[in-house]
Amino acid sequence: MISKRIIPCLDVDKGQVVKGVNFINIRQAGDPVELARRYYEMGADELCFLDITASSEDRKATYEVIKATAKEIFIPLTVGGGVSSVKDIEMLLHSGADKVGINSAAVRNPELLSEGANNFGSQCIVLAVDVKRYGSSWRVYVKGGREDTGLDAIDWIRAGEQRGAGEILLTSMDGDGSKNGYDLDLIKRVTELVRIPVIASGGAGNASHVVDVLKAGADAALLASILHFGETTVQEIKDHMKKSLVRVRV
Amino acid sequence: MPSNTKICIIDYQGGGNLFSLENSFTHLGASTYRTSDPDEINKADKVIFPGVGSFANAMNQIHKFNLAESIIQKATSGVPFMGICVGMQVLCASSSESPIEHGIEIVDGLNVFETHVRKFDFLKIRQAETEEKIKIPHMGWNQVTLPDNSKNPLFKGIENSSDFYFVHSYRAHAKDLKNNQSVEKRFPKLEYALTNYIEDFISHIWNGENLFACQFHPEKSSEAGLTFLKNFINL
Q: Which residues contact A29 (CB under 8 A, 6 or more apart)?
């Protein structure tokens, strides 16, 4: 049977890994290439690289960092941040990304998902969705969590799947960096709905949180703070998964 | 001697990415070159036939560059040859993966291996579903299990049933190869590895000599994948 995946995430700003809490209060966490290699050696199943500045002037530097990162690791690499055209997707794939995360641009222009899927295959189009809870539903935010789109998260994710996204990277902004655990209701709702893999993000504080979200239906768990700041390791999380009977690659 | 051999990567320009594959070989100290020229393929000492795009698109590109005959020839010539992902699928007889605009249900492959490639069976998926939905594509790490006492040289140093990385929605079915007399006649020593996702499918084929094909991506399969590629370099 297929394994559940552990995916360390590097939020990169101007060539440095950073990590915030609830999308603000960002602090430095190290060199992306070095961290990528370390996570690879620790047994990460995949790696995610989010360019959180992604302004046009930093774009070229980003491709170079991605290339350098991709050379060090022999596991899949997802890259996101500021992706807004088929050309951007192509540039990232040629820099060594295996999958490309699309967020704000997909809301602005949902066609980008189908164009991306038609050109490069669904398997490399990841729809990244940042959501905030509103009572018993969730709303989609864009531009790094700064703008409320008013879209219902469930409707949007369903539309994204239909347009050809091959995977969903679902971030709970309420949970992001909080270490209070993932939003399990959200993951349950979404994974009951779609037939593509869902990566849960936002809120991991310890290995039990990871096990909880994988048992709730997520196919993979995205981790940042608790790994970057050495509070736990990939191995520790995987040991806990194994003990909890969650199938994992060791 | 083997380390001096350059590895020929068939580039049929299907829009896919050869970065990781080339990077893995470079990391392992082997040099590679890309070609879409049938004469270059004919001369090659070691060949990788990677998978890019859809089956129908790959076949179109192969025909566009007139590569079919060279690939079939080379695959069975005794020179180390490995098809990866769609590269493996295209070595099979046919696939049901074709964009609707082709207006056909089945696309012919190169028919080196007489087995068919079909989408994961949705009826079976529903029956197998218990608590969690089964996802298509089959994306992630899964176990590759060789027959007991396999002498497959590419898995040397790799524990049986190790995890490899997969991304695909179509697969070759094991029942086509079982007790298939024409396959047995062509490749009397043929063996295959199985992976379970909804059902057992063929994740690796070895003709018993130097022809290999894998559905998984060794270049994305961490240390097990690197060992697998290193074994290929050392053939």
A: A16, A17, A18, A19, A35, A228, A229
